């Protein structure tokens, strides 16, 4: 073999070695992509006009305005079934409408206690919809209740949110008041998922780690606005997270994959997520993002079947929602 | 038939294999070293490279005490040193003679106030807020001494609301330093607002603090309030210094007693540093010194020439120390201001000279932005 042959083998060896290293580095991200993305299961309501599908998720990143349903859940041992699976409820449901052309976005928080039709045809609180088929069940119920089309969904568990915020080095938030709660659920690191802990998030600008940020967005006992106040706080932290997300690089994906460890699911494919990253970075002005919370008179408190629920004034809600999110 | 490699060829092959392995390892390390998360890692003030500073930070007069990740640090002439090691320590307040600090030690379900020497020796535990009964643990925050050092004002969540246990609010209390049995409550907060916080005693009988209230839509706002009488009934003696829609808090009085700095958010996610003249009862029109940041904990220099404050100063978003000079001609006198009302000041601000841009004094540190800075001459 001449020197040319040796050189060719050397170069091929180098290329294979480098490629192998790249594959090894991104293996956790690829595994997460396989497990957690592209989950386009379909759940239909008895009278639904449509349901989410992989075709709907294709709208995302297609250059048109699209709607994503963000879901957040407790998923500790309180929700474990005998067979090891978990029946989750979604305490946080935020509809996000993104228009890539006008660079405008709208975030609408759906109250967890809003009384709507569930995927099994019965009526109940919005947070129970995911008990019927997981996130696609929640999507189907929200689509029917609000008469809109949802193109994609993203679900994050509580510990996933903590880990994500910690990985990103915390978030900067201006907390508007002292958030004091003597009965905050100590179900993250506690052996007893029914235990309580005392929470005191002090007011003012501050840098919150994942644990403290979760306390801030989850506590509701000390807030007269209850779930509405909590929704506002959730939107604040979401915006703070978005501000940090612009520093995330493709090289972070393997670490993020390890960080989530089953605490993230989405109907979007990895390609769609990759295509969305530049779009997220384009929204760097807070005025580009509008926040909507369904306070009274859009909703009213009522006791239904012994449960504290919120009844929607759909004559007001639907025009508002259609104004921002279009029609089904 | 086998062919033996010559020594030279074997050496070349070994070098190639080694080069391949090193290249693969290098690529893996390169990718790992270029994550965005790498940018988010802060240091301690006493880490190598952070302990000694020159430049503007070394020009700050006197001694500052700051909290970072549960520890208290001293900053003197640009040098950081550890006063109290990490252990839930926060919110230092310095005694008028500079010999001692009152510091909060925060634990899982309660917090206590401690008197410590300026070198970190614990001299006394001033509150005893732990309880075996979970619901009778207490929070104590925001210690602040009167100018004569004889009275300690602070926040406590006593007394508990035993009728509505979800209603947990902080109230402003005072006690002679070292005599918790003589503590007395000063405020009765509005339920479900989180309470009244950040006491700033002007004397043992006059107090500015931040109170929280709700508007007709149920939104919570903050305002600075001044009072000269304890309020045990909710009658709310005194009057507002700022309007609720301005959402001001964290009052800091200049050493001359004639200027008040504060943080105002206008209900948003940015926090402006503002300063206004103060005649002992009312504020003049405020001047915005720093806008568009998340400024926190303004603290006057002992000579009144300017303020330090905390704000996010780098990609990580951790709070850094900033300096803002306050020119003497920046503010009109209260008497010359448009508002002579005995209640909250009015806006908008007239057009004063532009304040100088703030100077960032630290990088890559992580100061506790809910902890006031103590500064002694």
Topology:
The complex is a heterodimer of chains A (328) and B (377).
Chain A: H1 3-36, H2 54-57, E1 66-73, E2 90-99, E3 104-110, E4 115-117, E5 123-125, H3 135-146, E6 152-157, H4 158-167, E7 171-175, E8 179-185, E9 196-201, E10 204-208, H5 210-218, H6 226-245, H7 253-260, E11 264-266, H8 270-282, E12 289-293, E13 299-304, E14 307-312, H9 314-325
Parallel strand pairs in A: 1-6, 3-12
Antiparallel strand pairs in A: 1-2, 2-3, 4-5, 6-11, 7-10, 8-9, 13-14
Helix pairs in contact in A: 1-7, 4-5, 4-7, 5-6
Chain B: H1 7-32, E1 63-68, E2 71-76, E3 79-84, E4 89-94, E5 100-106, E6 111-117, E7 122-125, E8 140-145, E9 151-156, E10 171-176, E11 184-185, E12 196-203, E13 206-214, E14 220-227, E15 239-240, E16 248-253, E17 259-264, E18 272-277, E19 287-290, E20 296-300, E21 306-312, E22 319-325, E23 359-360, E24 374-376
Antiparallel strand pairs in B: 1-2, 1-24, 2-3, 4-5, 5-6, 6-7, 8-9, 9-10, 10-11, 12-13, 13-14, 14-15, 16-17, 17-18, 18-19, 20-21, 21-22, 22-23
Kindly describe this structure:
The complex is a heterodimer of chains A (328) and B (377). Chain A starts with a helix and ends with a helix. In chain A, helix 4 (158-167) crosses helix 5 (210-218) and helix 4 (158-167) runs antiparallel to helix 7. In chain A, 37% of the residues lie in helices and 24% in strands. Chain A has a six-stranded mixed beta sheet, sandwiched between helices. Chain A is an alpha+beta fold. Mean pLDDT of chain A is 83; it is low at 47-55. Chain A has helices spanning 3-36, 54-57, 135-146, 158-167, 210-218, 226-245, 253-260, 270-282, 314-325; strands at 66-73, 90-99, 104-110, 115-117, 123-125, 152-157, 171-175, 179-185, 196-201, 204-208, 264-266, 289-293, 299-304, 307-312. Chain A has a single domain, classed as LCP protein (Aminopeptidase, 3-Layer(aba) Sandwich), CATH 3.40.630. By secondary structure, chain B is mainly beta. Chain B has a domain at 241-377. Helix content of chain B is 7%, strand content 36%. Chain B contains one helix and 24 strands. Chain B has one helix at residues 7-32, and strands spanning 63-68, 71-76, 79-84, 89-94, 100-106, 111-117, 122-125, 140-145, 151-156, 171-176, 184-185, 196-203, 206-214, 220-227, 239-240, 248-253, 259-264, 272-277, 287-290, 296-300, 306-312, 319-325, 359-360, 374-376. In chain B, strand 16 and strand 17 (259-264) form a beta hairpin. The radius of gyration of chain B is 26 Å and the shape is elongated. Classes of the chains: A alpha+beta (328), B mainly beta (377).
């Amino acid at each position: 073999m001449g020197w040319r042959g040796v050189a060719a083998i050397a170069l091929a060896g180098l290329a294979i070695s480098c490629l192998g290293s790249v594959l090894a580095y991104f293996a956790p991200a690829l595994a997460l992509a396989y497990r957690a993305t592209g989950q386009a299961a379909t759940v239909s309501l008895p009278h639904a006009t449509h349901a989410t599908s992989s075709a709907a998720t294709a709208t995302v990143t297609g250059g048109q305005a699209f709607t994503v349903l963000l879901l957040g859940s407790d998923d500790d041992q309180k929700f474990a079934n005998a067979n090891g699976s978990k029946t989750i409820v979604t305490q946080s449901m935020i509809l996000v409408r993104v228009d890539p052309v006008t660079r405008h976005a709208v975030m609408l928080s759906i109250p967890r206690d809003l009384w709507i039709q569930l995927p099994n045809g019965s009526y109940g609180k919005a947070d129970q919809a995911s008990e019927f088929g997981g996130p696609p069940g929640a999507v189907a119920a929200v689509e029917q209740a609000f008469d809109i089309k949802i193109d994609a969904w993203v679900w994050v568990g509580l510990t996933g949110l903590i880990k994500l915020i910690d990985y990103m080095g915390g978030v900067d938030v201006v907390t508007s008041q002292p958030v004091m709660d003597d009965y905050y659920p100590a179900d993250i690191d506690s052996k007893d998922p029914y235990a309580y802990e005392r929470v005191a998030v002090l007011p003012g600008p501050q840098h919150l780690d994942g644990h403290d940020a979760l306390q801030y967005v989850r506590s509701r006992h000390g807030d007269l606005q209850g779930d509405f106040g909590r929704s506002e706080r959730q939107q604040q932290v979401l915006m703070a997270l978005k501000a940090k997300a612009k520093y995330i690089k493709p090289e972070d994906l393997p670490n993020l994959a390890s960080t989530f460890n089953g605490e993230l699911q989405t109907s979007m494919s990895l390609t769609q997520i990759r295509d969305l990253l530049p779009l997220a970075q384009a929204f760097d002005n807070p005025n580009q993002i509008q926040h909507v919370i369904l306070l009274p008179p859009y909703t009213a408190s009522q006791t239904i079947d012994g449960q504290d629920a919120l009844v929607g004034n759909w004559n007001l809600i639907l025009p508002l929602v259609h104004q921002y999110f279009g029609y089904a | 038939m086998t062919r033996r490699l010559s020594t030279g060829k074997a050496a070349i092959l070994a070098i190639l294999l080694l080069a391949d392995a090193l290249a693969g390892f290098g690529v893996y390390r390169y990718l790992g070293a270029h994550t965005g998360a790498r940018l988010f890692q802060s240091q301690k003030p006493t880490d190598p490279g952070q302990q000694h500073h020159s430049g503007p930070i070394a020009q700050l007069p006197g001694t500052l005490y700051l909290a970072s990740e549960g520890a208290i640090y001293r900053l003197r002439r640009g040098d950081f040193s550890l006063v109290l090691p990490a252990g839930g320590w926060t919110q230092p307040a310095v005694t008028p003679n500079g010999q001692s600090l009152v510091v909060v030690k925060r634990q899982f379900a309660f917090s206590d106030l401690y008197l410590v020497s300026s070198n970190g020796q614990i001299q006394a535990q001033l509150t005893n807020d732990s309880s075996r009964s979970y619901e009778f643990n207490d929070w104590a925050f925001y210690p602040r001494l009167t100018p004569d050092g004889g009275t300690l004002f602070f926040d406590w969540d006593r007394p508990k609301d035993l009728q509505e246990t979800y209603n947990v609010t902080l109230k402003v209390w005072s006690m002679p330093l070292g005599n918790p049995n003589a503590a007395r409550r000063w405020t009765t907060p509005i339920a479900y607002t989180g309470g009244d916080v950040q006491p700033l005693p002007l004397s043992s009988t006059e107090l500015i603090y931040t109170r929280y209230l709700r508007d007709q839509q149920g939104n919570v706002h903050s305002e600075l309030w001044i009072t000269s009488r304890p309020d045990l009934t909710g009658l709310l003696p005194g009057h507002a210094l700022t309007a609720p829609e301005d959402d001001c808090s964290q009052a800091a009085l200049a050493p001359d007693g004639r200027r008040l700095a504060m943080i105002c958010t206008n209900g948003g996610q940015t926090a402006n540093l503002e300063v206004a003249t103060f005649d002992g009862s009312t504020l003049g029109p405020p001047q915005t010194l720093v806008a568009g940041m998340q400024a926190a904990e303004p603290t006057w220099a002992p000579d009144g020439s300017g303020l330090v404050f905390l704000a996010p100063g780098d990609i990580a978003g951790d709070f850094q120390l900033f300096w803002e000079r306050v020119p003497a001609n920046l503010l009109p006198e209260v008497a010359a201001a448009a508002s002579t009302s005995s209640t909250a000041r009015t806006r908008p601000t007239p057009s004063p000279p532009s304040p100088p841009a703030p100077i960032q004094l630290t990088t890559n540190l992580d100061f506790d932005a809910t902890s006031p800075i103590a500064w002694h001459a």
